[in-house]
């Protein structure tokens, strides 16, 4: 592997992903890890991330003891480079000019720049700079304001850069990462095929002759997990899909068809009556969420008891937990992520399971690639996220069958049009909201007085922050007229131009 030491940069995960894109397995570990802990990952090289501190701050995180002498190639980025320079005997000082943003290199050379030609734009973000080189190093790149913008000691395999090669604002940064990987001699074997092989083997070893339960939500993670488990343990997988009646148009059928199509033995429970019944007259968003969560657990427990009676004891509960949820890093993320709508905590004592989380080492993109390899249809594999409580939290005010039907049609028109116009993959999530507002309109010669829907599309990396998508006006015009012309219950369409923060992605 390549071990990425996390000094708290907002780009740490991006570094790991960039390396994975080169088919190299990378893991993120906390900056205070010991050399021994790092070695446990059998690294061929180490990347030091950036970070918000100054090396002279009291308590600023340092280099793991012995790392510099361990003979491992090191790529040190931003704060990482200052740390490397400092630890190797150089000097770091506050810069006279804080450099922030795009900066062209005024010169570059050296090992990691091999193959780079023409102008090199670097993304800079630093207050301190290396002002004196440690012994054995030389300067290999400069900008207008920063003389020492990149350094190397190729003999020892030590490389530092003040800018961020991992961000797309450094367009040629990829070559630098590639060159570093070449220097480490690491195998480029982290391909979807290899991942599939590893996961299949691990699942088989862990599960043995036991049985596994999987709750499928229709999202890409649980669906892909269904395919993987089916392949690994076949019959011994019990997959349950609870249809709460709050799904999008055709969704339940689509998921069912896709999974059955590749041989997953799926039990679909139609619990729409029950969920809609429990939601009757409820308008408060938190109340809706609580009811849905509670009903889900109850239905799920019921199915599991029936299943246990049918197939015998089920030992494992599989979950599609992803790497970003488990990274133990300086930023202390993890628990902040919104998890799937069912959790082990809600299961009664007699339904205790051991957790099986085969995707714990994967990023979402990797799950999508795996999904495609396992035969999930591309439009399911590439699907936008969808919240556990479903359309209930997009149907403002009380949720009724009629209102859900209106919302479903509007959502379908909007999302289908995004696909048709090639905009779907450019947005991170897109949705329609049925508001409780009615307003006056004119259709033909007649007055209308009916519902307002809001469309929302956002760009985002992980859903934690988001920007409203600048969809073309012509596209919005087309969608608006399609909606009003084909859904008589709607006479007004508005587009949500709020980012997150201060808005959230969902309206409830
Ligand atoms: P917000 O609205 O908080 O949403 O900006 C961020 C992302 O999380 C999704 N979301 C949920 N997902 N259960 C889920 O599985 C939930 O209760 C839930 N609430 C929000 C939302 O769709 C967006 O992708």
From TrEMBL:
Q: Which residues form a coiled coil?
A: none
Signal sequence, renumbered to the chain: none
Reaction equations catalysed: XMP + L-glutamine + ATP + H2O = GMP + L-glutamate + AMP + diphosphate + 2 H(+)
Query: What GO molecular function terms would the record report?
Result: ATP binding; GMP synthase activity
Residue limits of the GMPS ATP-PPase domain?
190-383
Catalytic center residues: 78 (nucleophile), 164, 166
Enzyme Commission number(s) of this protein: 6.3.5.2
Pathway info: Purine metabolism; GMP biosynthesis; GMP from XMP (L-Gln route): step 1/1
Q: Which CDD domains does UniProt cross-reference here?
A: GATase1_GMP_Synthase (cd01742), GMP_synthase_C (cd01997)
Q: Could you tell me the superkingdom of the organism this chain comes from? A: Bacteria
Q: Name one GO cellular component term.
A: cytosol
Keyword Ubl conjugation in the entry? The reply is no
NCBIfam families listed in its UniProt record: guaA_Cterm, guaA_Nterm, PRK00074.1
Q: What does this protein do?
A: Catalyzes the synthesis of GMP from XMP.
Subunit-level organization: Homodimer.
Know the name of this protein? GMP synthase [glutamine-hydrolyzing]
Species assigned in the record: Truepera radiovictrix (strain DSM 17093 / CIP 108686 / LMG 22925 / RQ-24)
């Amino acid at each position: 592997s390549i071990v990425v030491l996390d000094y708290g940069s907002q780009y740490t995960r991006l570094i790991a992903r960039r390396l994975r894109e080169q088919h190299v397995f990378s893991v993120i570990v906390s900056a205070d890890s010991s050399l021994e802990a790092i070695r446990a990952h059998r690294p061929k090289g180490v990347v030091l991330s950036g970070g918000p501190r100054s090396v002279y701050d009291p308590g600023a995180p340092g280099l793991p003891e012995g790392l510099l002498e361990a003979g491992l190639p090191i790529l040190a980025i931003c704060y990482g480079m200052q740390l490397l320079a400092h630890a190797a005997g150089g000097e770091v000082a506050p810069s006279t000019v804080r450099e922030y943003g795009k900066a062209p290199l005024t010169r570059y050379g050296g090992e990691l720049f091999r193959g780079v030609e023409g102008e090199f734009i670097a993304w800079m973000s630093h207050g301190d700079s290396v002002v004196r080189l440690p012994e054995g190093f030389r300067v290999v790149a400069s900008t207008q304001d920063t003389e020492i913008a990149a350094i190397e000691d190729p003999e020892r395999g030590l490389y530092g850069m003040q800018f961020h090669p991992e961000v797309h604002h450094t367009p040629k940064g990829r070559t630098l990462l590639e060159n570093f990987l070449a220097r480490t001699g690491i195998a480029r074997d982290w391909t979807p095929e290899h991942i599939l092989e590893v996961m299949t083997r691990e699942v088989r070893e862990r599960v043995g002759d036991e049985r596994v339960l999987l709750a499928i939500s229709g999202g890409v993670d649980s669906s892909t997990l269904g395919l993987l488990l089916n392949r690994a343990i076949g019959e011994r997988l019990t997959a349950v899909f609870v249809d709460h009646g709050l799904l999008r148009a055709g969704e339940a059928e689509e998921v069912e068809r896709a999974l059955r199509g590749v041989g997953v033995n799926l039990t679909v429970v139609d619990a729409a009556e029950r969920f809609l019944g429990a939601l009757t007259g409820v308008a408060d968003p938190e109340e809706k969420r609580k009811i849905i969560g509670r009903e889900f657990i109850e239905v799920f427990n019921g199915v599991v008891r029936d299943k246990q009676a049918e197939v015998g004891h089920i030992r494992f509960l599989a979950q599609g937990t992803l790497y970003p949820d488990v990274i133990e890093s300086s930023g202390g993320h993890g628990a902040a992520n919104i998890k799937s709508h069912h959790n082990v905590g809600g299961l009664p004592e007699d339904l205790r399971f051991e957790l099986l989380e085969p995707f714990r080492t994967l990023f979402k993109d990797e799950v999508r690639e795996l999904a495609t390899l396992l035969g999930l249809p591309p439009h399911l594999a590439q699907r936008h996220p969808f919240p556990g409580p479903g359309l209930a939290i997009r149907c403002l005010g009380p949720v009724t069958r009629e209102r859900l039907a209106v919302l479903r049609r509007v959502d379908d028109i909007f999302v289908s049009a995004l696909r048709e116009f090639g905009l779907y993959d450019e947005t991170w999530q897109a949705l329609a909201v049925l508001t409780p507002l009615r307003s006056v309109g004119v259709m033909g010669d007649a007055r209308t007085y009916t519902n307002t829907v809001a469309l929302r599309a956002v760009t985002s990396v992980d859903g934690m922050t988001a920007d409203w998508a600048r969809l073309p006006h012509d596209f919005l015009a087309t969608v608006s007229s399609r909606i009003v012309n084909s859904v008589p219950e709607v006479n007004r369409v508005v587009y949500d131009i709020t980012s997150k923060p201060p808005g959230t992605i969902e309206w409830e």
